[in-house]
Amino acid sequence: MKFSTQSLVVAALVSIMVPAFSFAAGSTVEINKSRATQSSIDSLKPYPSPENGWKRYVLHLPYHLGKPVNNGPMWDHDRSIELVIGRVMEVDCNNYRGAGVLHQETVQGWGYRYLRADLSDKVLGSLMLCSNGSRRQAFVPFVTKTVGYNSAIPVVVYAPEDAVLRYRFWKADGGFDEVR
Questions:
Q1: Are 55 and 161 in contact (CB under 8 A)?
Q2: Which residues, including other chains, have CB under 8 Å from residue 171's CB and lie 6 or more apart?
Q3: What's the distance, CA 68 to chain centroid?
Q4: Which of 5-9, 25-29, 50-54, 105-109 shows the lowest mean pLDDT across its residues?
Q5: Which tens digit of pLDDT belongs to each residue from 77-121?
Q6: Residue-wise burial string across 60-75, b where 16 or more C-beta atoms lie within 10 A, e elsewhere
Q7: ∠ CA(166), CA(95), CA(85), 5° rounding?
Q8: Is the pLDDT score of 12 beyond 90?
Q9: Would you place residue 139 in the very low, low, confident or very high pLDDT band (cuts 50, 70, 90)?
Q10: Half-sphere exposure of 154 (CA within 13 A, CB side)
C-alpha cells in the first residue's frame, strides 16, 4: 500500500513554535479548533484537567467525508494521524532518540480514550565524531504512535510540560495491492 503525507501549516507551526513558548503547569494546547466539528469541541468536557507539570494537547480533526451528519459515522478509514512526542534539546551532529511509553487510558464513564506520555531522561545517540561548533537546539523524538482518524472526538495527549507534540496526517493512495 502506498502512503502520502498531507502537511498542514498548523502542523509546521506547532512543531516550530511550541518549544518557544513557556506554558504554565497544567495548561491545555488546542490545535485546529477553528476547523473542528462541534461534536469534537463538546467531547473535550469529560477529559481530566492536566496535573501540575503536565500539558494537555488537544488535536481537533477536520471532517473529511463530505457534509457532517449528527450522530453519524465520523471515521475515515483511509486516514490516520502519526503522533511524535519528544523534547527540544541541545545536540551535536549525531542522531538522537529518547525512550518513552505512550499509555492509552479511558475517561471513566465515557469510554473516550486518551494518551499519556511517560518520557525517560535517557537519550541514545550515534557515535559520530563532530566538529567544534556543531551544537544546536533540535527536536529529539521519544515515542511515536499512529492513531485512527475520527473527527467526532479530539485526539487528546497528556505529556510532561517540557515535551513537544508533532503530528502529521497520513492518507492511503487508493486500494490495496495483493500478494499471491
A1: yes
A2: 3, 4, 5, 6, 78, 79
A3: 24
A4: 5-9
A5: 778 899 999 999 999 999 999 999 999 999 999 888 999 999 999
A6: bbebeeeeeeeeeebe
A7: 20
A8: no
A9: very high
A10: 28
For residues 1 and 48, what is the distance between their CA atoms, to the nearest angstrom? 38
User: Cell 527540544 maps to which residue?
Assistant: 88
CB neighbourhood size of 30 (10 A): 15
3-state SS record for 58-121: EECCCCCCCCCCCCCCCEEEEEEEEEEEEEEEEECCCCEEEEEEEEEEECCCCCCEEEEEEEEE
Question: Looking at the domain covering 3-171, what would its CATH class be?
Answer: mainly beta
Give residue 43's identity as a one-letter amino acid code: S
pTM of the predicted structure, to 2 decimals: 0.75
Nine-digit cell string for 150: 475520527
More confident residue, 180 or 11: 180
